[in-house]
UniProtKB/TrEMBL annotation:
This is Integrase core domain-containing protein. It comes from Clytia hemisphaerica. Residues 123-302 form the Integrase core domain. InterPro entries: Integrase_dom_put, RNaseH-like_sf.
Amino acid sequence: MNIDRDNIIIGLFHEGLAYKEILAFLLKWNNLDLSLRQLKRILKRYNLRRRLNNDENIADVTEVIQSELLSDGCNLGYRSMHQKLIIKYHLNTSREQVRQILGRLDPEGVNSRKKRRLRRRTYVCKGPNELWHMDGYDKLKPYGFAIHGCIDGFSRKILWLNVNSTNNDPAIIAKYYLNFVSQTNGTARRIRADCGTENSNVAGIQRLFRTHPIDESDNAFGLQSFLYGKSTSNQRIEAYWSKLRPTVTQYWMSHFKDMRDAGELDETDDLFRDCLRFSYMSLIQRSLDGAKELHNTHRIRRYNFQECPSGRPNVIYDIPEVYDAEDYIVPVTDEDIEIANEVTTEPLLNGCSVEFNALAHFIMQELNAEEPENAAEAKQLYLDMCSIIRNF
């Protein structure tokens, strides 16, 4: 029995990949050439299969959905909820079952998510890493939490989705970018972003990496490798922000507004804002990590007016040849990454200064408190910290 191989297969299965997608991943990234029959036999050994009696696990599914409706999953539609059940809880259920349960448990939320569709212009991109879209998201900024993200134009894979105290510092934005470049050993042919000084360091680094064309057909090098424009031209990331609000950020916006209305939150006091960041930053980042994973593993439906393929962003990005496309990544040397690193800065831990982090950890020891696991625990930690600081 090959335990390492089986663990890889189990992980891909729990990402919701189809059997053919699992086989393609194994062949390309692990050099494992299995037949469909072999794959099914391995999955059967671990009692993993796609088709189950929809009634046999309905109690488990209902219980988990009830739990999600009480947290940041309260705004998910049935497709996203179905994907989350697969990815996070490893529950094998049908979309139809999830739709029916949501209809019973949250009929008001179901009705509120019904929207009309707009006719969009055609979006053209040839392959993964041909064009990245990056942008900041400010809906939680009044409370001290600034989000920044980047999405691949072809696959719609979220490349990074981070929260900290600012998304206006060009050195921090450059660090997000360089971390991903180091991870993939390459950059995109082009990057598109809004006009703003926060993108200046990334623009300089990208143009350094793309000083020369990589072949005769490459006309996106030099100045053309980083494109400034209006937010309407940055449609991929803007479209994702519209999905992030109902699924994640609306929950936190409502939570903080409730605290403000109850007199528990003063956004104008920098010290108490640091208390808020310290208490909630890791929790919000965890929500964003979950949203990123959910998006990257869900199946994008086919739409008119788009030339990019339907499918799962992770699969489209990692195995473009399945979709008759090629990877446009541009290799970057370690020497260039080292040079670029000189104009980047690590984001502050919890969005707070070193001194405040030390004070906050001291207060946590005095309170015998642990890292919060949910919004209620984070709120209690915040209130306890504020109470102690007021009495200093």
